Structures are given as structure tokens and as C-alpha cells.
Amino acid sequence: MKQISILLTKYSDRMSNFIYHITGRGYTHSSIALGEDPEEYYSFNYRGFAVETIEKHKKRGVKNSLCFKIQVSDEVYETVKEQIQAFQANREEYSYSTFGVFLCLLQIPFRFHKSYFCSQFVAEVLSKSGAANLTKSPSCYTPNHLISLLESNPGYVCALANVI
Question: Which end of the chain, N or C, is less surrounded by CB atoms within 10 Å?
């Protein structure tokens, strides 16, 4: 068994504040990491595919976070790792989907080629790896929806922690 982490954070920029108020407060950004004590988290932001650290989050003013630490099989872990490596190797081909965020808020499923927002990316990686069974399209998950998804999946051993 290996571990992956899902980090949910609350940013304070305009888009994050909009998402915060429209989705019932909570968290406005999500990322995924490999290993028990991850130093790097992977996600999408307005620049596209992003490699993040706790230190970067602190510098951006993040004060509120929630981290799910999930035990997964070696096979699921390797699949998550391969997906992340593929995104990272081709990062210049990917972009952030602002329009996708608005469709998500309206709960309209969509699929844009090589364009993601943070929680869509995390949900898709979890789904394609077999780490989670989604009840809707990855494009319809906000960071706050991920909480329900992660808490409802049977067999998860989740440890919650405020890491920032």
C-alpha cells in the first residue's frame, strides 16, 4: 500500500473569492501529491499545469487547508504517478480552463482538449487511476465536492490535516 494526498486550500484572489462565495464557502483550490510526506503537489492554475509546494501556498497567503491522505494499492499509485508524469512532461500543451470553471459551477459536463481547472484535474486523475468512483463527470467537481467524494469512498483510510 502507498499513499496519495489531496490538498484543498482557500486562496484570496478574485477568481477564488468568486468561487468561494458561489460554492458555499470552503475551499477554492485542489491539488494531488504522491507519497507519505509530499514536497510537491500537482494541479492546474491560471498558468496551466502547476507544481506547487506548501511554501508557495504560504507565500500566496493561504491560511486554510485540508489534506486527505489516502492509502491506495501499488497499482493505483503507479497509475496516478504515470498520469502526473505525462502531464508534467507535456505541460506546455495544457492550459487553464476559466470557462470550464463556470460550466462546473452550473454543473454542465464538458470536455475541452488539454484544458483543465484544478478540481477537474484531481477528479480525473482519481477516476482514471481507479482511486475513486465518481458519481458525475470530473468537470463537475469543485474542491468542496471532492470532500464528499473522498469521504464517501469505501475502503479509504483518510487522515485529515491542516498542513498550512
Answer: N
